[in-house]
Amino acid sequence: PSMPYNRLGSSGLQVSQFSFGSWVTFGSQVDTGIAKEQLQIAAEAGVNFFDNAESYAFGKSEEIMGQAIRELGWKRHEYIISTKLFWGIHDMVNMKNTLNRKYLMQAIDGSLERLGLDYVDLVYAHRPDPNTPIEETVYAFSDMISQGKALYWGTSEWSADEIRAAYEIADRRNLRKPVMEQPQYNLLHRHKVESEFARLYEDIGLGLTTWSPLASGILTGKYLDGVPEGSRATLKGRESIAEEARKHEKGVRALVAMANELEVSPAQLALAWVAANPHVSTVILGASSAKQLEENLGALTALERLTPELKDKLDHLFA
Ligand code: NDP
Fold this sequence. Notes:
Layout: E1 5-7, E2 14-16, E3 18-21, H1 32-44, E4 49-51, H2 60-72, E5 80-85, H3 101-115, E6 120-125, H4 134-146, E7 150-155, H5 160-172, E8 180-181, H6 191-196, H7 200-204, E9 207-210, H8 240-247, H9 249-262, H10 266-275, E10 280-285, H11 290-297, H12 299-305, H13 308-315
Parallel strand pairs: 3-4, 3-10, 4-5, 5-6, 6-7, 7-8, 8-9, 9-10
Antiparallel strand pairs: 1-2
Helix pairs in contact: 1-2, 1-11, 3-4, 4-5, 9-10, 10-12
């Protein structure tokens, strides 16, 4: 099956149903060589959106993606790339855990320099900042767009109220409105996308670029017989993945059985379930190898086989 493209919310930008991100992987598990291979595989499958952030591997992830894209010789009009700002990479006051104007205006310049680009397509407020007025943040992102450093802006893991407040400020002041939100969405984390944001899709035309579709790998079934060597759960600070996997063992086993019956992999079935939600503009895939990415892009086949009955069964698997 060929890659579908969806409008990013009510914007005119078309993003591929599946996209590819670099969190955890680029700069630790994935070097520039593997990154190039992965980007090439993704592009050949029709992926046009590549997700990144300032904080990923403290800037290294942006450097690797920028370098890989240059080596691949991609033209700037061929791909959509993002960065996300909030945590910062300078350990000092005003430069971390903030969305103040001072931080944001230098952070976008730093990201562009590491990526080696004149502009990013999408820029996100990576988290909300209760210590900065939302108006100050809206002005800063709107100015980035006016300055030609980004084309669209949005939020990540903001509450529905915060998103609506940002939208209304922008509307009142004739500033650039937030276009998209980036929430976690997978079979284990559903509240924001399915309940909290329910009114925003129609009211403000919110688009979603969703993260961790496999709950960090738990939904592949790879943790059912313990923690495999080299997997994300073995990385420093990510030990809780194993515990989370144990908690959902029964549901994951049922997912594996359903996938076997459909002749797709559990990962492909879990990814197809995310993609089947019409509010999801693009599902951001993660992969620590080329092989995993190839498997995950095969979710398009699972999506074709996902009948309403099967989707309903999946909806209740972890309930
Ligand atoms: P997933 O939940 O899909 O987890 C991906 C990881 O699961 C891989 O790195 C790999 O880890 C394992 N995996 C994936 N596919 C397979 C497979 N077929 N077989 C076996 N193992 C597999 O997504 P991520 O958590 O990586 O998130 C995806 C993207 O979303 C990120 O790159 C980032 O761009 C974005 N994101 C955004 C956040 C935000 O706050 N806005 C937060 C988190 C992510 P391993 O091989 O190491 O076990």
